[in-house]
Amino acid sequence: MTATDAKGAGAQGRARHLDLKVLGPILALLALILVGALLNANFLSMGNITNVLSRSAFIGIIAVGMTFVITAGGLDLSVGSMAAFIAGLMILVMNGLLPTMGPGWPLVFVGMTTALVAGVAAGFINGFLVTTMRIEAFIVTLGTMGIYRSLVTWLADGGTLSLDFGMRSVIRPIYYDGILGISWPIIVFALVAIAGEVVMRRAAFGRHAAAIGSNDQVARYSSVNVNRVRLLTFVFLGLLVGVATIMYVPRLGSASSSTGLLWELEAIAAVIIGGTMLKGGFGRVWGTVIGVLILSLIDNILNLTDGVSPYLNGAIQGVIIILAVILQRDRKAGA
Amino acid sequence: MRHLAYAALAATLAMPAAAQETQVIGISIPAATHGWAGGMNYHAQEAVDRLEGVYPQLDFVLATASDPAKQVNDIEDMLATRDIDALVVLPFESEPLTGPVAAVADAGKWVTVVDRGLAQEGIEDLYVAGDNPGFGRVAGEYMVSAMPDGGQIVALRGIPTTIDNERVEGFQQAIEGSGIEILGMEHGNWNRDDSFTVMQDFLSKYPQIDAVWASDDDMAIGVLAAIEAAGRDDVQFVLGGAGMKEMIQRTAENDPMVPANVTYPPSMIATAIELTAVGLTSNAPVSGEFVIGSVLVTPENAADYYFPDSPF
Q: Does residue A10 form part of some domain?
């Protein structure tokens, strides 16, 4: 009962401070853009904007899926290792089939299918263990995080898996080319974000996820199939990890045990900066996109300026993450 | 039944006699969590396989640890249950491993420390080390010789550690007064993705970069990809380091962007195991310090540093 009361109070508080809570992440982003533009003239150049948006795409695509998992009251710590494992698998499959299929788009298509199928399967395993086996999402994904990280190290024999050179020039355009000067990762990220926003706001699935995260008992009595929706959030996230990997592999054409390190924490941080509640019940996909951009911009600005010792990069990121969340905190809950 | 019992008894009686002749070398190294460590694991395994044939009286116990705490456990287990006569250890971190390794030395066992020194001096009998200041110095000297008229470079650093600091100091001393100016230095964390990002930002920030000291081959790969994607032709070359086989190969094939390399051989673990085996089995003295120099690899000598079977 107390939990429901707190939720009710939270909803009231949200209505009262609607402006700041919605504007918080946007203001933080605008402030960063202003700081960046003042510090370096190249900051707003087309090249730099393309760089920042393209490199945000991996975490961004994953973070959109993470928004749904967290909204439904779950968490997934395994996405970074999962991406590394899928990247390794994708490279192995393409290298293995290269002699028979030859370099070309059919083989790229096989690689993409591998990534998507592996992503869905990995997401399903996480979701199955969380829902049917009733194990805490934190523990399940902590376990699978270690499993995938070890598997990619093992596949790479401790070194690095590299895509065969003949294949690299074929697959390279997926990261570096695009339409009308906008690179593919940016386009895919935008499409995923728009689809995510629509599903979260308009589709029954989004509302069900929020209802489950808010109170799964009530959701169950309201004839929401709790397990099915929860499982689907994990499968959906796994699929998006596969999509992110398809964007990632063409960039350097390699995967190793250091691929995707800490991506899970960056994705979770972006989701929370964007205004989604870590305990579930409320999710905001466009906020997640802003959160991802804030995180990449901090890195970018620190690289473009000389004033700050690189040793302090992590500290500055931490301060900005906390500030962004303070800007939109629930005053009622603090009182 | 009785025969079986006798056989078992005979076996147990025979065991101590055999054990007296066999000496055990314990090897404790970090797991293959990045390229260099992967190569080091490969060379450790290869050395063990080879030396088991050379010295039938030696037994080897190889343990890889994914963090310092696990490495401490490994070493304690080796001492307690495997009854090792010598320990070859590449410490994950200096501080946490100093106590446990000192305990092995106090138990009267031979201790060989590799690469990363312990926090306290005088524990180990033999110290096989890479030359980090030398690694930076050789790289700096190459930069000076490749750009006699000076130039503007950017540098990528590794994970913030003593190793990285020593390398960077060695590099800075070597280029001092040569007219080579370091425009910027950022941490690429010995990681391809991080260095790709850092290099993209360097390219946005500086309109003219003559060369890059990537200081590591993983980072050099990220740097090269960023330069290629930006389509910049002002960067003349990228100097990596550590001798990854793909990069050594490019140097051997006279790739103008990868004209040289500086070694920091992961095979130093093999040197340490070999010297320890020699010390246990012969009268040849092997105690002291053995510093493995960092060598400049150029197209002329690249073939000597190319190990196609190693993962690194």
A: no
DSSP string over A166-196: HHHHHHTHHHH-EETTEEHHHHHHHHHHHHH
Interacting residues of B135 by C-beta distance below 8 A, sequence separation 6+: B167, B170, B241, B262, B264, B294
Structurally, chain A folds into a number of domains equal to 1
**In the beta sheet, which residues pair with residue B288?**
B126
pLDDT digits 0-9 by tens, A273-317: 888 888 889 999 999 999 999 999 988 888 888 777 777 878 888
Check residue A7 and give its pLDDT.
45
C-alpha span between B294 and B307 (Å, rounded): 17
| Dist. CA B77–CA B84, nearest whole Å | 10
Q: Quick one: average pLDDT of A2-30? A: 60
Beta-ladder partners of A161: A255
Residue recorded with tokens 């299929």: A101
Q: Identify the CATH number of the domain in which residue A55 sits.
A: 1.10.3470
CA–CA separation, A48 and A31 (whole Å): 17
Does position B2 have pLDDT exceeding 60, yes or no?
A: no
Domain enclosing residue A108, as ranges: 17-334
- Asked if A51 and B201 come within 8 Å (Cβ–Cβ), the reply is yes
Contacts of B229 in chain A (CB under 8 A): 176
- Element containing residue A319 per DSSP (H, E): helix A313-326
What are chain B's domains? 2-130+266-293 (3.40.50.2300), 132-262 (3.40.50.2300)
Judged by CB atoms closer than 8 Å, whether chains meet at A48 and B311 is answered as no
- Closest CB from B191, B197, B246 relative to A55: B197
B287 SS3 class: coil
* Residues facing residue A87 across a β-bridge: none
